[in-house]
């Protein structure tokens, strides 16, 4: 293979997520979530930013050009880059004060009713210049890469006005032009009813439907439309109206559903054919069956329940056993999940959601790529896909969730280029 530019070799495991006979564009469900397609003592060859070959290291070393750059995995493992399919990185200020109030027993919705929560973030964002918002957002996005994430879905939603929502999405568009991450933009103008519209919520919904969505699409600023369907925020009927408006303008649907109460969001997701329903902490058997029948991916966000100190967790086992495809994401945001670590999410998925290590890795890579409509491009280590590859300095994939609150990322390769390396990889084995 004379055209190979980079050969990652000496990997104890190459976790390909490639399963013979499986449709690569469909999410994995049930027992298939445990199939990781591991190549022991493996190597990955890269050419022109794409994966050229995967196989035993001895074989690829023999067939690859000696001119190819060698990247020694040092007995670690190679995974696809994490795909974080639910994040809120565009905000002006953190809300640690609310965090400590919640830990002292004040409920999230009470803080929101007092003017905190999402509306507090909206006030701060509106007061910030677009250039400054771009600077702080870029810096936050930089922080995903050393943790092994190579693709993020990024939402607006902390502006809650036409101009500030457009500004948030324009910031993402500018950053995406030269940032190593793949950034997938989502319009979330329906994140809350802004303070100035509390007495006339209909006026704000009309603004989202008739002003915001058309402008977002006209400027090409988003691929998805999202809504926070929750008791005290947007009702199921309002959520469906907004999502269908987005669909009419070409925006695929995703939804914050049944996080704090059994609010009907999962059933809305099924009715509108959303690609993903996220959170799902409060769903029961009826909603789970509706998601399965409609083919909606369940994106679970265990970091949020952890950060909110909620006793109830999303029913991952019931979802998987019912045949619903499960993805995992961080929900990185200033109010309820201040983490960019997909490694921590893997640990929470195993400890609190009772997923296996293999299920969690599938959910954080291939299934998460499916939740963004990108499974034909990334989420697996397979010939022809983007060379988004991460070397983790551990001897087995099973070790990743076992270590919680730590990162074992040694090297991150994005589109075939090394974009981050730990200065001195350590070997805690």
Short overview:
The chain has 429 residues and is an alpha/beta fold.
Description:
With 429 residues, the protein is α/β, with parallel strands linked by helices. The chain has 16 helices and 16 strands. The strands form two sheets. Strands 1, 2, 3, 4, 5, 14, 15 and 16 form an eight-stranded mixed sheet that branches. Strands 6-7-8-9-10-11-12-13 form an eight-stranded parallel sheet. A hairpin with a 2-residue loop joins strand 2 (38-47) and strand 3. Helix 7 runs parallel beside helix 8 and helix 13 runs antiparallel to helix 14 (357-364). The model has no long low-confidence stretch (mean pLDDT 96).
**Relevant CATH superfamily of the largest domain:** Metal-dependent hydrolases
Distance between the termini: 34 Å
Unreliable residue stretches: none
The total number of structural domains is 2
Reported for the largest beta sheet, the result is: 8 strands, mixed
CATH class of the largest domain: Alpha Beta
Mean pLDDT: 96
Our count of helices gives: 16
What's the β-strand tally? 16
What best-fitting shape do the alpha-carbon axes yield?
globular
CATH topology of the largest domain: TIM Barrel
User: Radius of gyration in whole Å, from Cα?
Assistant: 21 Å
The fraction of residues in strands falls at: 15-25%
**Fraction of residues in H or I helices:** 25-40%
Question: What distinguishing features does this structure have?
Answer:
alpha/beta, Urease, subunit C, domain 1, TIM Barrel, 2 domains, eight-stranded mixed β-sheet, eight-stranded parallel β-sheet, 22% strand, globular
């Amino acid at each position: 293979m004379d055209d190979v530019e980079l050969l990652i070799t000496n990997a104890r495991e190459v976790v390909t997520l490639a399963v013979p006979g499986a449709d690569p564009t469909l999410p994995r469900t049930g027992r298939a979530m445990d199939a990781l397609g591991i190549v022991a003592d493996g190597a990955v060859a890269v050419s022109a930013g794409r994966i050229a070959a995967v196989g035993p290291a001895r074989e690829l070393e023999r067939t690859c050009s000696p001119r190819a750059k060698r990247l020694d995995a040092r007995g670690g493992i190679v995974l696809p880059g994490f795909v974080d399919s639910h994040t809120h990185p565009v905000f002006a200020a953190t809300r640690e004060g609310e965090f400590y109030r919640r830990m002292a027993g004040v409920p999230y919705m009470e803080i929101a009713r007092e003017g905190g929560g999402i509306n507090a973030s909206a006030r701060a964002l509106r007061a910030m210049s677009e250039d400054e918002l771009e600077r702080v957002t870029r810096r936050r996005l930089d922080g995903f890469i050393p943790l092994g994430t190579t693709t993020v879905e990024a939402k607006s939603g902390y502006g809650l006005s036409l101009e500030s929502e457009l500004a948030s999405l324009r910031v993402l568009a500018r950053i995406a032009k030269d940032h190593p991450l793949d950034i997938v933009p989502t319009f979330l103008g329906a994140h809350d009813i802004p303070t100035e519209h509390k007495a006339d919520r209909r006026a704000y919904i009309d603004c989202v439907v008739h002003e915001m969505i058309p402008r977002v699409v006209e400027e090409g600023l988003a691929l998805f439309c999202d809504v926070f369907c929750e008791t005290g925020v947007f009702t199921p009927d309002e959520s469906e109206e907004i999502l269908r408006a987005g669909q009419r303008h070409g925006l695929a649907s995703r939804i914050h559903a049944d996080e704090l109460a059994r609010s009907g969001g999962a059933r809305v997701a099924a009715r509108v054919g959303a690609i993903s329903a996220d959170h799902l902490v409060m769903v029961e058997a009826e909603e789970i069956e509706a998601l399965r029948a409609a083919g909606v991916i369940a994106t679970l966000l265990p970091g949020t329940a952890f950060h909110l100190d909620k006793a109830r967790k999303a029913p991952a086992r019931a979802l998987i056993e019912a045949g619903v495809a499960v993805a995992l994401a961080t929900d990185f945001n200033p109010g309820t999940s201040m983490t960019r670590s997909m490694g921590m999410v893997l640990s929470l998925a195993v400890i609190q959601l009772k997923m296996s290590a293999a299920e969690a890795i599938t959910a954080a890579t291939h299934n998460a790529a499916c939740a963004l409509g990108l499974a034909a491009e990334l989420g697996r280590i397979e010939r022809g896909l983007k060379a988004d590859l991460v070397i983790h300095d551990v001897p087995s994939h099973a070790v990743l969730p076992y270590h919680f609150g730590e990162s074992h990322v040694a090297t991150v390769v994005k589109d075939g280029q090394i974009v981050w390396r730990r200065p001195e990889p350590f070997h805690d084995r």
